[in-house]
Amino acid sequence: MSSSPWERLWNGDEDVATPFHWGQCQDAPALVERSTPPLPSLGNGPTFAGMEVAESVQCPFCGQAFELVIDTSLPSQRFTTDCEVCCRPFEVVADCEPGEILGLDVLQ
């Protein structure tokens, strides 16, 4: 008499680590193939390789210095990050040109 994979597992006839394959189950959901649309072409415009620049900053609370990576493809940005040591949040304001940080301010 043939038994289902579940019965064999329940009875100890199969190792628990045996992978279960959806193809063995009648009630398995059908896999749906999804495709994402292609990204728009930039043509002969600027390339964005090398736009991330690492800069050392100092936490305004505990004084610990650590490195932040800034995306210089954005000319002006303001964001909040957490100190890697004391975990307190602080605000960073960066002014950039592609591939270069022109100004970096740390605010409480």
Core attributes:
single chain, 108 residues, mainly beta, three-stranded antiparallel β-sheet, two-stranded antiparallel ribbon, elongated
Describe this structure in words.
- It is a single chain.
- The protein starts with a helix and ends with a strand.
- It has one helix at 5-10; strands at 52-58, 65-71, 76-82, 89-97, 100-107.
- With 108 residues, it is mainly beta.
- The radius of gyration is 27 Å and the shape is elongated.
- The chain contains one helix and five strands; from the N terminus they run H-E-E-E-E-E.
- It has a domain at 52-107.
- The model is unreliable at 41-47 (pLDDT under 50).
Strand order of the largest sheet: 3-4-5
Strand content: 35-45%
Major sheet details: 3 strands, antiparallel
Low-confidence stretches: 41-47
Shape: elongated
- What would you report as the Rg, rounded to the nearest angstrom? 27 Å
Give the N-terminus to C-terminus distance in angstroms.
73 Å
Number of helices: 1
Secondary-structure blueprint of this entry?
Elements: H1 5-10, E1 52-58, E2 65-71, E3 76-82, E4 89-97, E5 100-107
